[in-house]
Amino acid sequence: MKNIGIDVKPSSKSCEDELCPFHGSTKLRGRLIRGKIASAVLGGNAVIEKQYFSYVDKYMRYEKRRSKIHAHLPPCIEVKKGDTVTIAECRPLTKTATFVVIEKVGE
Ligand SMILES: [Zn+2]
Asked: What residues form the membrane-spanning segments (predicted)?
């Protein structure tokens, strides 16, 4: 397995996916984001929901916001809806996905 330059616990499975950062040729650079899986197709696309806080001047408080990010899901990483994952930024892999799932953090 290839070293992807990010300290993650490696998946035990292997795959033939050209877009997989571990077994293919995808290079990672840019942001790392942690979020929850909103939907996932194995070997295809995953939608990650990320929560963040935004400051509202008028009320001097934070409001909870969420956004969805599309990411490529390699076949060697097994996740299901509701799991927490780490995604890393890479070149645009499909029309909407510029991130790839690199690690499953928890259920
Ligand atoms: Zn792989």
From this structure: none
Q: What architecture does CATH give domain 28-106?
A: Beta Barrel (2.40)
- For residue 102, the CA-to-ligand 1 centroid distance in Å is 9
Rounded to two decimals, what is the model's pTM? 0.87
Output the CA 4–ligand 1 centroid distance in Å.
11
Residue-range domain boundaries for the chain = 28-106
The amino acid at residue 81 is: K
- pLDDT tens, 3-19? 888 888 777 788 898 99
CA of 103 to the centre of ligand 1 (A): 11
